[in-house]
Design a protein that fits this description.
single chain, about 20% helix
């Protein structure tokens, strides 16, 4: 099973965007993978936004990266 480009988009080396639409509103969730467990891979969602423009706001990518760094430093 490959990645569906309509649902998943790689934004940076470690941050992905998951897309969904509900009641005509487009939602975007930012996430990363935690592959540190030997038997499981976790998908950690950092936050979500209602997407109003085509370009992903840099501030949201930065926020996801900050949360990712905090997660792995704990």
């Amino acid at each position: 099973m490959g990645n569906n480009p309509k649902l998943f988009k790689k934004l940076t080396e470690s941050i992905w965007e998951f897309r969904t639409k509900y009641n005509g509103i487009q939602y975007r969730f930012f996430a990363f993978w935690d592959k540190t467990e030997s038997t499981e891979t976790l998908v950690i969602s950092t936050h979500g936004i209602i997407k109003k423009v085509s370009k992903v706001p840099k501030a949201d990518i930065d926020k996801a990266n900050i949360i990712r760094k905090e997660y792995f430093n704990q």
